[in-house]
Amino acid sequence: MKHTLSVLFENEFNAIPRIVGLFSGRGYSIDSISIGAAEEAGLTRATITTIGEEQVIEQIAKQLNKLVDVIKVVDLTFEPFVERELALVKVHSTPATRPEIVQIVDIFRAKIIDISTKTMTVEITGKEDKVDAAIGMLRPFGIREIARTGAVALKREFSGQA
Amino acid sequence: MENRQSVPSKSKTKAEPEILTGSDILIRALLEEGADTVFGYPGGSVIGLYDTLIRHPKLRHILVRHEQGATHAADGYARATGKPGIVFVTSGPGATNTVTGIANAYMDSIPIIVFTGQVASTMIGNDAFQEADIIGITRPITKHSYLVKKAEHIPRVVQEAFHLASTGRPGPVLVDLPKDVLASKAPYARKEGVSIRGYNPTYEGHTQQIAKAAKLIMEAKRPLVYAGGGVILADGSDDLRSLAMQGRIPVTTTLLGLGVFPEDHPLSLGMLGMHGTYAANMAITECDVVLAVGARFDDRVTGRLDAFSKDSKKIHIDIDPACIAKNVPVDVPIVGHIKNVLPILVSMVKKTDTAEWLGRIEGWKREHPLKYTAKPDRIAPQNVIETIADLTRHEAIVVTDVGQNQMWAAQYYRFKNPRSFLSSGGLGTMGFGLPAAIGAAFGRPDATVVCFTGDGGFQMNVQELATAVKNRLPIKIAILNNGYLGMVRQWQELFFEKRYSQTYIQEGNPDFVRLAEAYGAVGLRVVKPEDVAPAVRQALEVKDQPVVIDFIVDPEEKVMPMVPAGAPITNMME
After folding, report:
1. How close A64 gets to chain B, by Cα (Å)?
2. Three-state SS for B345?
3. Which residues of B touch A18 (CB under 8 A)?
């Protein structure tokens, strides 16, 4: 099944290869990895999605925890969590198709961030399935290029008792 | 700087930090960590470091003949003493030659610190002469690694490297030192204490879990201790002995756990697993509670997993949480340092009523002892081990190579003391024996060091005879020479219908006696069974140079019992 791991670490020299290597070293591929500065100066958070057996993922999580650079590892899969992904989609457009594309963009609460005579670039944010759906709807117009960030995720804090 | 000066005890020395080169800083930092011996080999990137070494006689440098030898020697030194072993090598090929030794130390959790030279930091990535991305190459086989970018960082990196290598689950640490960093000057400033935010091993076991474990053991009808190399690494042998003897609990050990429990004690079952004793494999299968201490349920121990110790409750004490329940589900996991956990267990576990269980075990031992049949005109390799064991009173430091010689040594030496069996367990590195024996001899000059090797493994690092001769190390190298890569030959005989593909090495083997003499060592050859003991006595008399004894042994002798790979461990060929 799909797992979403959140890894907080000190981005020292070689830290990212060490993290990634624990997956490849077990024959697992990373579906997406998104890395950026975390809440505290000097700390970095990676959100990693991968598909694998629970036992293997648990072992990877334990091994991640053992890395000297790593401060904290959470497998969000079994907890409520919020997740977003950003995609930039460059779609072929003509004066005739533009209104329809704009409509689709509106429905997905996406944004058009660039336009040329032959293309429009759309910014889509949301969960992976929403991004997939939006891309699916744009595909018939002809997609030139796609850049996706992969998921970023945090645990949901509200637990039902305000 | 202000902070450091305000520490009263250190204020004097820290007031005016000396300006030193990176090389000087490195050596001073090593000495401050208590290092006394380095195994190494010079080269272009570390030529300045080696020049600096001349001015620091307190740090003894042992010149090896191949960098792989340096890592194995450091590994043997660490296994024999408990102190981290240290290696200096140059960049590029010097660094890549250490890879097998690092992987070996990683698999067996041995603390070594490898300092590799690197091309100048301005050249890194340019495919410079003798450049290799050694940090990248060794990433999956080091506990941690550093690329040092400034000379002033060296003291902290050295402190952290020692701390990481030797605490928690020990392991190799690599420090890559660009040539310009070693040459540049910086103030020497060392802070006391190490604090690494992401590194906090759990040392104290969970009290309730320990109590639960004690209760399980006390209630058990058929308890068994399964002890591994972790007990030796933690220096927990005394506590384990107290626990077993007080609770009347039998003990089996892994290969790397040999010596944790005296094998002449009635509670000892010897080694378990693929070449374990009948009694040990039966006991782990039939017991109702297993206390696994510092062991990792390796495939060579468990055989087929779903048949391994099916009906037992399992308690697992280990410092590495990733080790627990990795292969086998565990009922009572205890993460902690063996040295902290075992004494608490000892205080809780009283004498248990295991008389009936011990009776059964006694029966297994009686009916299925380790045995071999010596042919009248041929030397049985097992007899060589037994003879050397007797003549060294089972107290030598025994270093082995990998394969049949290793297994026979494990089965027949009958160890009494921890840190007296040094062997490449996890990685199974042929060529480990001789250089590791050299490391052990430097670490424990008081001890008799015996290296059991084969005609195959010996040749994989034979160049280190020069290191042993130069340093007048009186190590005894016993070659169990059967003209074959014996363990592979054994598998071919049993599982590949005697097709001995590429395992016959007799043709081309050197005359090992003359080879020893060519290096300046003593060479002895033994071909008759009755000459084994006299030759060993003669070798033990030699105190100031290495002795190579070429025992021409029966090439058909096999390591038995044997469990075929992947079979349940009760499926023993005897």
Report:
1. 10
2. helix
3. 139
Residues of B in contact with A21 (CB under 8 A): 139-140
B145 in reach of chain A (CB within 8 A): yes
Strands B421-422, B397-400: pairing is: parallel
At B68-81, the pLDDT tens digits run 999 999 999 999 99
Q: Is the pLDDT of residue B342 over 80?
A: yes
Beta bridge partners of A121: A90, A114
Q: Domains of chain A (ranges plus CATH)?
A: 2-79 (3.30.70.260), 82-154 (3.30.70.1150)
B572 located within any domain: no
- Interior angle at CA B501, CA B499 and CA B502, nearest 5: 150
Which one of A9, A21, A70 has the shortest CB-CB distance to B140? A21
User: Is residue B419 domain-shared with residue B521, that is, in the same domain?
Assistant: yes
Residue B558 within a domain: no
**Do B146 and B282 belong to one domain?**
no
Distances from the Cα of A5 to the Cα of A65, A71, A94, B69, B570, angstroms: 12, 13, 41, 41, 41
Statement to judge: residues B179 and B271 lie in one domain: no
Q: Kindly report the pTM of this predicted structure.
A: 0.95
For residue A70, the distance in angstroms to the closest alpha carbon of chain B comes to: 5
Question: What is the per-residue pLDDT across B32-60, written as a single tens digit (0 to 9) for each?
Answer: 999 999 999 999 999 999 999 999 999 99
Cβ-contact A86, A128 below 8 angstroms: no
Q: Which residues of A touch B197 (CB under 8 A)?
A: 10, 71
- Partner residue opposite A14 with nearest CB, options B145, B196, B199: B145
Q: In this complex, which of B139, B322, B326 lies closest to A21 when CB atoms are compared?
A: B139
* Domain at B118, CATH number: 3.40.50.970
Residues B11-31, mean pLDDT to the nearest whole number = 85
pLDDT at B164 over 50: yes
Summarised one tens digit per residue, pLDDT across range A61-87 is: 999 999 999 999 999 998 999 999 999
B457 falls within a domain? yes
Q: Are residues B126 and B218 in the same domain?
A: no
pLDDT surpasses 60 at B2: no
d(CA B450, CA B476): 5
**Min CA distance, B38 vs chain A (Å)?**
25
Walk along chain A (162 residues) and give the pLDDT tens digit of each residue. 899 999 999 999 899 999 999 999 888 889 999 999 999 999 999 999 999 888 889 999 999 999 999 999 999 998 999 999 999 999 999 999 999 999 999 999 999 999 999 999 999 999 999 999 999 999 999 999 999 999 999 999 987 665
Q: Say what the pLDDT of residue B8 is.
A: 46
B325 and B298 in one domain? yes
Structural domain ending residue among the three candidates B310, B339, B367: B367
How far is it, in rounded angstroms, from Cα B547 to Cα B550?
A: 10
Catalytic residue list of B: 67, 129-130, 179, 487
- Name the minimum distance, in Å, from the CA of B84 to any CA of chain A: 18
pLDDT at residue A56, as a whole number: 87
Residues of B in contact with A60 (CB under 8 A): none
Residues of A with CB below 8 A from B144's CB?
A: 68
B171 and B35, same domain (yes or no) = yes
Query: In sequence order, what are the residues at sequence separation of 6 or more whose Cβ sits closer than 8 angstroms to the Cβ of residue B352?
Result: B217, B218, B220, B223, B247, B248, B249
Task: Quote the radius of gyration of chain A (alpha carbons, Å).
Answer: 19
Verify that B154 and B12 share a domain, yes or no: yes
How do residues B462-499 score in pLDDT, each as one tens digit? 999 999 999 999 999 999 999 999 999 999 999 999 99
Contact between chains at A68 and B136 (C-beta distance less than 8 A): no
Nearest Cβ partner for B198 among A17, A62, A70: A70
Question: Quick one: B263 and B296 in the same domain?
Answer: yes
Burial of A37 (0-12, 13-18, 19+ CB in 10 A): exposed
Domain extent, residue B127, equals 2-187
